[in-house]
Write a structure and sequence with these properties.
- The chain has 244 residues and is of the alpha/beta class.
- The protein is built from 9 helices and 8 strands.
- The two termini are 30 Å apart.
- Helix content is 34%, strand content 14%.
- Helix 8 links the parallel strand 7 (196-201) and strand 8.
- The chain has 2 domains: 18-109 and 228-235, 3-Layer(aba) Sandwich (Rossmann fold), CATH 3.40.50.1860; 113-222, Rossmann fold (3-Layer(aba) Sandwich).
- The strands form 2 sheets. It has a 4-stranded parallel beta sheet with strand order 2-1-3-4. A 4-stranded parallel beta sheet has the order 6-5-7-8, with helices on both faces.
- Helix 7 (175-192) runs parallel beside helix 8 (210-217).
- It is globular and about 60 Å long.
Length: 244
């Protein structure tokens, strides 16, 4: 006989391993985007961070957002998720505050993968970000990334479709155009830095195009999807089966 017990009195449902903090933004999240639940082969739970707009997080980098992030993470914890991630690499700014405020693993930014990537490749890492002008040393140090690591950064802020669809929230998104834009950015990045050994897509809107980037540059490609799947497998293990 198997006996089950409740995990938390605040938990009214079960089975969601990953909670995702999402910005207060409005644009289409296609499959592959971290903001689309169909991206994952397992159930996830979303929590919007109150008043955390793209402008306040990316442009203003408003430190007062720390409290809304903490409250949103605590709500996800109370709802029973086993770990909390984010849906924007710039959430790295609040990695430490949020991690110290809950009792479950927190991995808010795709940038957290950088030390791991460097250890397994020992080569320069190419980072494609939503806006290179907004990605600053504090994002890396908050994510535990040494500023001595060999990184090169390219941004999507000057790519017309990405800029208008995501950064400006125009209300529509041409996926084919964004795919072509990010592939060209990746190709130029590798052409200018042939010693790059991997690509990291900082932005949670870019994983839908990871396969196209990899086809173009023939390098390992890391993003929010690789990170979230990795952590999920540590939280929900399955028995192995097969022939000996």
């Amino acid at each position: 006989m198997t006996i089950y017990h409740i995990n938390r009195k605040t938990q009214a449902w079960y089975g969601e391993s990953i909670g995702i903090l999402i910005l207060d933004a409005a644009y289409p999240c296609i499959p592959g985007n971290i903001g689309n639940a169909g991206t994952f082969a397992f159930p996830v739970r979303y929590q919007k961070v109150a008043d955390a707009s793209i402008d306040r997080l990316l442009n203003q980098q408003d430190p007062s957002l720390a409290e809304p992030f903490i409250q949103a993470a605590r709500k996800l914890q109370d709802q029973g998720v086993r770990a909390v991630t984010g849906a924007c690499g710039f959430m790295a700014l609040f990695q430490q505050q949020v991690a110290e405020s809950v009792d479950i693993p927190v991995f808010l930014s795709s940038l957290l993968q950088i030390p791991f990537i460097h250890q397994i490749t020992k080569k320069k890492i190419g980072i494609i970000t939503a806006n290179a002008s907004c990605l600053r040393p504090g994002h890396f140090t908050s994510a535990g990334v040494s500023l001595d690591l060999p990184l090169v950064i390219a941004g999507m802020e000057d790519q017309p479709e990405f800029r208008d669809a995501v950064l400006m929230e125009k209300g529509s998104l041409d996926s084919d155009k964004i795919r072509n834009e990010v592939v060209e950015v990746a190709k130029e990045l590798v052409q200018n830095h042939p010693d790059i050994g991997s690509i990291l897509l900082e932005c949670s809107d870019l994983p839908p195009y990871a396969h196209a980037v990899q086809s173009a540059v023939k390098l390992p490609v890391f993003d929010f999807f690789t990170m979230i799947n990795y952590v999920h497998t540590t939280l929900v293990r399955s028995p192995f089966s097969g022939f000996m």
